[in-house]
Structure formats: C-alpha cells, structure tokens
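Practice problem: predict the structure.
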Amino acid sequence: MIETDIDRPHIQGLAQEENRDLEGVLNPSDSVDTQSRIGDNGALQIQADHFREALNKTIDQRDNTENPEGVIELEERIIALRKAMMRTLQQREIEEVRAQQEEDVSRLQRFKEWAKENMLGLSAIAITVAGIITTVVIGARTAIIKGAQATSKFAKALANLGKKLGPTLLPLFNMLAKLVSLGAKGLAWLASNLWVLAIAVAWFAYDYFKERRRKK
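Answer:
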C-alpha cells in the first residue's frame, strides 16, 4: 500500500508557527481518524484552503507594494505559501488513495468469506482471481499517484505477465491492463465489479479445464 508518512523539510519563507501547523496536519498522531482528514470537508482540505486564502492576500499585498525590498519579501512568502498548499493537497490525495486501498482489502476479505460458504469447489479459484484483481487495483492506485508514465508501465507489465500465464488468465490480464490504462475510472469499475469478475473467471477456468480433461 502507498506510504502516507512522508518526511518533509520545513518550508523557508513560512513562519515557525506555520511550519509547525503544517507538520502537524501532514503527520498527525495515530489516534486521529483518517476519515476526518480526507474529503472536501476534511482537515487537509481545510488547511489547504487556509494556505490558499493567505496566498491570495499576500499576492494582493505584493501587487500594492511599491518598496522593492518589500516586494521581494512578499514574493518569497508567496512561493512558500504555494508550496505549503500543494504539499497539503498532495497529502490529501495520498491519504485518500490509502483509504481506497484499505477498502480494497476489506472487499477482498468479504468476498473470501462469501466464496468459502457459497462456491464450494470453485471457491479456491474465485478467491485466487479476486486476490489477483485486488493486488492489481492496489498497485495501480499507487502508480496513478506517480503519474501517467508509471501507470502506463504498470499496464504494460500486466499485459506482458498475462502472455506468460497461458490462455486461462490471458483474457483477464488483458482486461486488467486495459482498465488500468484508463486510470481512476477503470480502477473504480474494477473495484465495484470484483465479485462478478472473480465468479465469472472462476467458471471460465472450470469449464476450460473440464473441456481439456474431456478431450484427453
């Protein structure tokens, strides 16, 4: 899963108290509820909005300052506030991805329990497929954070892996590669359809091997 605790240096140009506040919101104690930090009304967005407001005020001050030295000082503060705002928004994005990954794991666990009770002989195949899909989704979420190039490499690696695994899993990996290349929308579809895909692939694999045994 993506790492949420990132060591970042203080930002030159911010007041000491502002740097302390920034460090506190970026690296909270373990007792803080993650859900209270993410989303449009979470602590991270509130902090980012605070920096944005301070940034806009500082820009206005700079534009109305005639003293060259004052302009330079305000410009340094503008750079610092912009950097602080971007760090905070980046942290929100990272923590939201981490929350999605934790839900991916929880979804897989629920499917495992259901499959063991309801799929009998096919449960092992279905659980394996669900595990593969979940692993891909979790890895792809991290790749998307790193940018389009990382996502593209991840999708290509999936397609190449599918070719090595043979005809049973090749269609699955081709589909996974295609959906990963679509980005967040593709991953959302994969996550929401995990159960259906796992069951469908399990039945496909069962029929495939049954037909092979029959031909022998």
